[in-house]
Amino acid sequence: MTGVDRRRRGLCIGTDTASRVRHTRGKSTPDLLRLRAGDVTDVPQAVVLPAGHDEVLAVLRACAAHGLAVVPFGGGTSVVGGLAPQRSAFVSLDLRRMNRLLDLDPLSRTAVLQPGLRAPEAEALLAAEGFTLGHFPQSFEWATIGGFAAARSSGQASAGYGRFDEMVLALTLATPEGTLTTGRAPRSAAGPDLRQLILGSEGAFGVITSVTVRIRPLPEVRVHEGWRFASFLEGAAALRRLAQDGPRPTVLRLSDETETLVGLAQPDAIGADAAQSGAGCLAIAGYEGTAEDTAHRRERAATVLAGCGGTPAGTAPGERWAHGRYSAPYLRDALLDAGAFAETLETAAFWSRIPGLYTAVRTALTDTLTRAGTPPLVMCHISHVYENGASLYFTVVSAQGEDPVAHWTPAKHAANEAVLAAGGTISHHHGVGTDHRDWYVREAGPLGVSALRAVKRRLDPEGLLNPGVLLPTD
């Protein structure tokens, strides 16, 4: 850490401008635009880097004694205002020093990981022992284990490995009131599952200091292939068949007509003409496992996909997607440099509601931005599938306008309203933060919010943990 680096009982404390600015907000487009404009009005007063659970507890107690808010910081990849507390004085609790693999049980296939461990480092440590976590979100290169748990992350291979919250077997949480530990068996009927209070809590209830996760043996082979469908609804029906009746691929996603035409499903093919990118909609199916099992599942899935109207496109589209699947955030920076506005949002719903949800959100975004004088290009793909429903992930590109943040806010609000009206959830895997908070309160309902407030008051009586994130401040 540059600048001031004081040590108190092993703590690293940074108060230099560069360190504080790097811990300001997250990675949403409005966050980036504000930083590009030099707006650092909500910069933390200091950055504190604890080395373990006891140091986290000490920091929380000290901050509670002085009325100083605390914002846990992992990879800084929040795109929903998860690092924008509603408090002028706060410290950023950077967990990067807590980056170890604490334990690995090959018999039970579990691993205990510290929260500041970045995803690539976690995969490397597990791979050295012959295992994988199998969690590969678009934020993979920067996001951390603690952040995955705090935001209920979902990786691109969720069809095969499950969401991150499904991988978590146990958690340790540091709070101003002490330590909360959860999970001592793979399943239990001993009361409500307290893990569910921590998963998705976004630092509002405490700081996650260790995560016990399910791990899987490293696959022998990984294969990705492309399939084309005449329409988005036809492709969605095919994905539903696989999700409900099997065989389920490890990766399963479908781009709509616009996203397929632009080539966003294959970042290295962006800008290709329609003849090159192909008409209709592109689906990506990926398979991991033993060579024999992978070949068998591919063959069975191909029968289903073809029977639903799909045309095989070979492995080239799938491998191009796999090669460029972490590229989109970097492409956004280039678009911002060129004067374009690019942002994403996502939701999920039951299968019967997917067509209406898709139309409602597209219409809300298109109408709002067109009225503002900047007609958008709205693209969408099904990013995650389940037996009972799926997630829709939208990408919006338009001119920035005179005030890009003010230009986007009404469109984002209109999309949020459309999501709730069409029966979707306000967030499938990006979390709540401050951007979704008011809609989350409506989704959860008054009694649900009151119950969560009671939990927060018990664990964080002074309301100092990430204030205004997830729940409104009192």
Major sheet details: 7 strands, antiparallel
Strand content: 15-25%
Shape: globular
Radius of gyration: 22 Å
The amount of helix comes to 25-40%
The total of helices stands at 17
Written overview of the protein:
The chain is an alpha+beta fold and 474 residues long. It has a 7-stranded antiparallel sheet with strand order 16-13-15-14-18-19-17, sandwiched between helices. A hairpin with a 4-residue loop joins strand 6 and strand 7. Helix 9 packs across helix 12 and helix 15 runs antiparallel to helix 16. The longest helix is centred in the C-terminal third of the chain and has 23 residues. The protein is globular, with a radius of gyration of 22 Å. The protein starts with 5 loop residues before the first strand and ends in a 15-residue tail after the last helix.
Features:
17 helices, disordered N terminus, 5-stranded mixed sheet, 474 residues, globular, alpha+beta, 7-stranded antiparallel sheet
What is this entry, summarized?
The chain is of the alpha+beta class and 474 residues long. 37% of the residues lie in helices and 24% in strands.
Which secondary structure elements does this structure contain, and how are they paired or packed?
Layout: E1 6-8, E2 11-14, H1 17-22, H2 29-36, E3 46-49, H3 53-66, E4 69-73, E5 90-94, E6 101-105, E7 110-113, H4 119-127, E8 131-132, H5 145-150, H6 158-161, H7 164-167, E9 168-175, E10 178-182, H8 195-198, E11 207-214, E12 216-217, E13 221-229, H9 232-245, E14 251-255, H10 257-262, H11 274-277, E15 281-289, H12 291-307, E16 311-314, H13 315-324, H14 328-337, E17 340-350, H15 354-371, E18 377-385, E19 389-399, H16 404-421, H17 437-459
Parallel strand pairs: 3-5, 4-5
Antiparallel strand pairs: 1-2, 2-3, 6-7, 7-11, 8-12, 9-10, 9-11, 13-15, 13-16, 14-15, 14-18, 17-19, 18-19
Helix pairs in contact: 9-12, 15-16
